[in-house]
Design a protein that fits this description.
The complex is a heterodimer of chains A (274) and B (255). Chain A contains 10 helices and no strands. Chain A has 274 residues and is mostly helical. Chain A has a domain of 166 residues: Orthogonal Bundle (MetI-like fold). By secondary structure, chain B is α/β, with parallel strands linked by helices. Chain B folds into 2 domains: 165 residues, 3-Layer(aba) Sandwich (Rossmann fold), CATH 3.40.50; 64 residues. Chain B is built from 7 helices and 9 strands. In chain B, the strands form 2 sheets. In chain B, strands 5-6-7-3-8-9 form a 6-stranded mixed β-sheet, with helices on both faces. Chain B is globular and about 55 Å long. Chains A and B meet through helix 7 and helix 8 of A and strand 5 and helix 2 of B.
C-alpha cells in the first residue's frame, strides 16, 4: 500500500487550464493620455462652438481664448498681471511653508510644543483664511503685506500638519540606531529625522501650494489692481468669457508647473525610495 | 574590556520581564543569549548598550577600552537599520562623522571595513539595491568601523533566509578568527548559538532567569554545519527549552 490515500476523483475528461485571475490594481501612468484628454476636450469645444452646437454664451471658443492670450502678450498686459501674482505666490508660499516646516518639525520633536500647538493648529486649520483678509488688511496694510500674509497663513497650517505627521512616521529603529552609535541630538535630527520626513513633507507641499494658488486669486479679487485674480474678476464682471478663460488657463498652468516642479524635486531628493 | 551584568531585574508595569540576572561577558568571546520568545533576551541586550534602563541592577564596563575605540558598545540590529537615502559608504561615514573622523582617516577606515566584509565593490550602492544578506554585511561593516569593545547583536541573521544565514555565519567566524571581538549575540536559533557561541546562556521564560550556561570549548574555526558534537549540544539546549517554549507559546499576552 502506498502512503498517499487515494482521493475519490471523477474520471478526468479534458485537462482544465488554470484561469488567470491575478493582475490589475497596479495603475501606471502614460503621459500622452493626459495630453490627449486635454486635446480632445479642447477640440470638442472648438468644434461645438464653431458649429453653434454650444452657444457662445455658455463657453468661449478655444481659438478666441488663444487669440486673447496673443493680445495680452502683445500689449504687455500679460506680465503686468503675471509678475505681481507670481511674486505674491512665491513670497507668501515661501514664508508659510518655511514657518510650517519649522513648527511641524518642532511639534514632531518636543512634547511641550506638541501639546501646545496641535490644538491651536486644529483650531486654525478649518478657518477659511479668506474670511480673515480684512483683519490682515488692518494688520499689514492694503498693499502687498496683507496678500503675503493671507497666502502664508493659508499654506502654514497644511504644511504643519503634513510635517509633523511625516516626522512621526520616521522609522524609530533608525533613530535608536543613531543613538546607539553615539550621534549627537542635532545630528540625529539633521541626518535621520529630516531626510526621513522628506517624502511626507513634499507630498504635503503639493497640497499647500495648491491652496496658495486658490488664496492668491481670492486675495487679488478682493483688493488688487493687477494680478491674475484681478484680471479674472474684471473679465467676469463684464461677462467677457474669453478673458475669463484666459485667466483660468493661467491658473491651471501655474498649478501644473508647481506640481511638476515638486515632482522634479521628489525625483532628485527621493531617488532612494523603492 | 569585559562587561558585567549585576543583578538585573526588570518589569513593565506589573508584568515581570527579567529577574535577577548576573552575567560576565569576558573580552574576546562571543556569548549567545537564547531563550523562548518573550523571555526578555532582546530587552537584556538593550540594557547592555544603554538603550533602555533596567528597573533594578547595573551594567558595568570593566577594564580599559581598546585603543582607537569610538563607540565601545555597538549594536547590529535585526532589521539592519541602514539609512535608505545614504549609500553603503555614506551609511558607514555617518557613524564616523560624529566622532570627528572625516576625510582621509574616514576613507581609510571605510576601505578597511568594506574589504573585511567583502563589500569593496558596493561602496556606492544604495540599500534598496542590496539583498538582505548584503545589507546585514553593511551593518556589520558599520559596527566594525567604530572599533567597538563589545558588539551587541540582536538576532542579526533572523531576517535572512537559511542559506544566506549559513554564509553570514561563516563570514562572522572568519571575522572573529582574524581579529577576535567580544560580542553578545541574541538569537532564537540554536544552530546559530552552537556555531558562534563560546558560551551559551539559556534563559527561562518570563520572568527571564538564567537556567544554564553552556560552554563550548571547540574553536570557532573548527566548527561547521552539522557537526555531531555541536548537534548534541544543540539537542541538549532544545531539551532545556522545549517545555518552556511550549508554555511561552500558549501564554496569553496581557499587554
Amino acid at each position: 500500500m502506498s502512503d498517499t490515500p487515494s482521493l475519490p476523483t471523477s474520471p478526468l475528461k479534458e485537462p482544465l487550464e488554470v484561469r488567470f485571475r491575478g493582475g490589475g490594481f497596479a495603475p501606471t501612468s502614460h503621459r500622452w493620455i493626459g495630453m490627449a484628454v486635454f486635446v480632445v476636450l479642447i477640440l470638442v469645444t472648438e468644434w461645438g462652438t464653431r458649429t453653434g452646437w454650444i452657444s457662445p454664451l455658455s463657453l468661449p471658443q478655444p481659438s478666441d481664448v488663444l487669440a486673447t492670450f496673443g493680445e495680452l502678450w502683445r500689449s504687455g498686459q500679460l506680465f503686468k498681471h503675471l509678475v505681481p501674482s507670481l511674486t505674491r505666490f512665491v513670497v507668501g508660499a515661501l514664508i508659510g511653508v518655511s514657518l510650517g516646516i519649522i513648527v511641524g518639525v518642532q511639534i514632531g520633536l518636543f512634547s511641550y510644543i506638541r501639546s501646545g500647538m496641535v490644538p491651536l493648529v486644529a483650531a486654525i486649520f478649518p478657518i477659511p483664511k479668506i474670511a480673515l483678509l480684512p483683519l490682515f488688511v488692518i494688520w499689514f496694510g492694503i498693499g502687498e503685506g496683507s496678500k503675503y500674509a493671507l497666502i502664508a497663513f493659508g499654506t502654514f497650517t497644511p504644511t504643519v500638519v503634513a510635517t509633523y505627521g511625516a516626522v512621526d512616521n520616521v522609522d524609530r529603529s533608525l533613530i535608536r540606531m543613531g543613538q546607539s552609535f553615539g550621534l549627537s541630538w542635532f545630528s540625529i535630527v539633521r541626518k535621520i529625522v529630516l531626510p526621513g520626513a522628506m517624502p511626507g513633507i513634499l507630498s504635503g507641499l503639493r497640497i499647500s501650494l495648491a491652496i496658495a494658488i486658490i488664496l492668491l486669486v481670492a486675495a487679488e479679487m478682493l483688493g488688487a489692481q493687477y494680478g491674475i485674480g484681478a484680471y479674472i474678476l474684471e473679465a467676469g464682471s463684464l461677462y467677457d468669457l474669453e478673458r475669463l478663460f484666459a485667466g483660468v488657463v493661467m491658473l491651471s498652468l501655474l498649478g501644473i508647473l508647481t506640481s511638476g516642479a515638486i515632482g522634479l524635486i521628489e525625483r532628485r531628493l527621493l531617488g532612494w525610495r523603492i | 574590556m569585559d562587561i558585567r551584568l549585576d543583578r538585573i531585574s526588570h518589569s513593565y508595569g506589573r508584568s515581570e520581564i527579567l529577574r535577577d540576572i548576573s552575567l560576565d561577558v569576558p573580552s574576546g568571546q562571543i556569548v549567545c543569549l537564547v531563550g523562548p520568545s518573550g523571555c526578555g533576551k532582546s530587552t537584556l541586550l538593550r540594557f547592555l548598550g544603554g538603550l533602555e534602563r533596567p528597573s533594578a541592577g547595573r551594567v558595568l564596563q570593566l577594564g580599559t577600552r581598546p585603543r582607537g575605540c569610538l563607540n565601545p558598545l555597538t549594536y547590529v540590529f535585526q532589521d539592519f537599520a541602514l539609512l535608505p537615502w545614504r549609500t553603503v559608504r555614506g551609511n558607514i561615514s555617518l557613524v564616523l562623522e560624529d566622532h570627528g573622523v572625516k576625510g582621509a582617516a574616514a576613507d581609510a577606515i571605510i576601505e578597511d571595513v568594506l574589504s573585511r566584509t567583502k563589500l569593496s565593490d558596493f561602496a556606492e550602492a544604495l540599500p534598496k539595491q542590496l539583498s538582505g544578506g548584503m545589507k546585514q554585511r553593511v551593518a556589520i561593516a558599520r559596527a566594525l568601523a567604530v572599533r567597538p569593545a563589545v558588539m551587541l547583536m540582536d538576532e542579526p541573521l533572523s531576517a535572512l533566509d537559511s542559506q544566506t544565514r549559513e554564509l553570514l555565519m561563516d563570514d562572522l567566524v572568519a571575522l572573529w578568527t582574524r581579529q577576535p571581538f567580544t560580542a553578545v549575540y541574541v538569537t532564537h536559533n540554536l544552530a546559530e548559538a552552537v556555531r558562534l557561541g563560546h558560551k551559551i546562556v539559556v534563559l527561562s521564560r518570563r520572568p527571564g532567569q538564567i537556567r544554564q550556561i553552556v560552554d563550548i570549548e571547540k574553536p570557532l574555526s573548527e566548527r561547521s554545519y552539522g557537526d555531531a558534537d555541536l548537534e548534541a549540544i544543540q539537542k541538549h539546549l532544545w531539551e532545556l527549552m522545549r517545555e518552556e517554549a511550549r508554555a511561552a507559546d500558549e501564554e496569553l499576552l496581557d499587554v
